[in-house]
Write a structure and sequence with these properties.
The protein has 13 helices and 19 strands. By secondary structure, it is of the alpha/beta class. The strands form five sheets. A five-stranded parallel sheet has the order 9-8-7-10-11, with helices on one face. A five-stranded mixed sheet has the order 15-12-17-18-19.
Length: 376
């Protein structure tokens, strides 16, 4: 239970300070400040917060609870069983490039001391830290270099798992390391993904700043969403590309398809169920999308010529003939990492603006594409 003091003033001038740790209520100051994200909750108390991660990875059956507390705060007995992390964090290891923009937006990128496969990071700010030797490379995500981690001694490791393989993290915990899982990528909505910024805000005792940043993103996103609803046309769209004789494209419930719908576009596979990818034949895609208005997200292609060199039959699509092909693969960081993969989920407002600009250029005449580019 929470510990605090009540100052009781008696009419006779007697002042008494009484510790009521065992009788305090655990009612949160803010019950849950998370509105869009489904994979975690954040309850705020006077001197600590409780973070519950309920979807650390797809099909996760275990929930994780963490107590984030300020220095010197006594954690209630009922919460002693959970991992306790002192905030603000001063030294951190994160394990996904999607975590980097959150650190930077909060202005705490200098606390980053380790990352698996640093070559994948695109951000100029964090790359400068890497080049200066301030961020250690920890090897592959599934086999983090325990020796290096024990040497640099982070306050916390923000873990990331695709399939629930947690052996490396469990070994690190046995060696005294504190792990907190982040499942931002499992969210199904753009604002749900972006709201994980508040997860990092709690780690750095910067809840108010994180709330303010997210509220700005939410406001801009909804303004563009309302604008898209006023457009009269609903252009047809296809996506993906051929890989090893099959055409892989987003399923109808996927994050990519969600954006196309929000931008008032007609994604031709919007009715397919699932959040992953469809694997189709070239012929079936051509039959459905030959006359589609736009091809958005054509795999790793960076030019029309590259598309045709890969398969001359792509020329049969009207979108290729008219050069209405837009990709995010052209914009890369210093070491070749695609900027979209790192930053997009943190700035869904900019992604939506890009797609609205592509589909309805008159609706956002002054917007310059941030992530996407029309292929030449």
């Amino acid at each position: 239970m929470r510990q605090y003091s009540i100052l009781v003033l008696f009419f006779l001038g007697l002042t008494q300070c009484r510790n009521i740790e065992n009788s305090a209520s655990l009612s949160a100051t803010i019950k849950n400040s998370i509105h869009y994200a489904k994979g975690f909750s954040l309850e705020k108390y006077d001197d600590y917060s409780v973070v519950k991660v309920t979807n650390a990875y797809p099909s996760a059956t275990e929930n994780y609870t963490y107590v984030l507390h300020k220095k010197g705060v006594q954690i209630p007995d009922s919460l002693q069983q959970f991992t306790a992390i002192e905030v603000p964090v001063k030294k951190v290891i994160v394990t996904s490039t999607t975590h980097i923009p959150a650190l930077e937006s909060l202005g705490v990128e200098n606390t980053l001391i380790g990352f698996p496969s640093t070559q994948y990071i695109s951000s100029e700010k964090t790359r400068a830290l890497i080049d200066a030797g301030k961020v250690r490379d920890l090897g592959a995500n599934l086999s983090l270099n325990t020796e290096v981690i024990l040497d640099i001694q982070p306050d916390v490791i923000v873990g990331f798992s695709v399939d629930g393989e947690l052996k490396t993290y469990k070994n690190l915990e046995k060696n005294g390391q504190k792990i907190i899982f982040n499942g931002d990528w499992t969210e199904k909505t753009p604002l749900g993904k972006a709201e994980w910024l508040k997860f990092f805000g709690a780690l750095y005792d910067l809840d108010e700043k994180a709330d303010k940043l997210f509220n700005s993103i939410e406001r801009e996103y909804n303004l563009v969403l309302d604008l898209a609803k006023t457009t009269k046309l609903q252009p047809t769209i296809f996506a993906g590309a051929i890989y090893e004789d099959q055409w892989f494209l987003p399923q109808g419930d996927s994050w990519a398809a969600y954006f196309l719908k929000e931008a008032n576009g007609n994604y031709l596979w919007k009715d397919s169920r699932g959040t992953g990818s469809l694997a189709l034949s070239f012929e079936s895609v051509l039959e459905t999308a030959q006359n589609a208005d736009f091809w958005i997200g054509p795999g790793q292609f960076t030019s029309i010529q590259e598309i045709l060199d890969n398969n001359k039959n792509y020329i049969h699509f009207t979108a290729v003939q008219r050069k209405n092909v837009y990709s995010f693969s052209t914009k890369k960081g210093k070491t070749g990492g695609i900027i979209y993969y790192e930053q997009a989920q943190n700035r869904p407002d900019l992604v939506l603006k890009d797609i609205v600009k592509i589909l309805h250029p008159k609706a956002l005449p002054n917007h310059q594409l941030v992530f996407f580019e029309r292929l030449k």
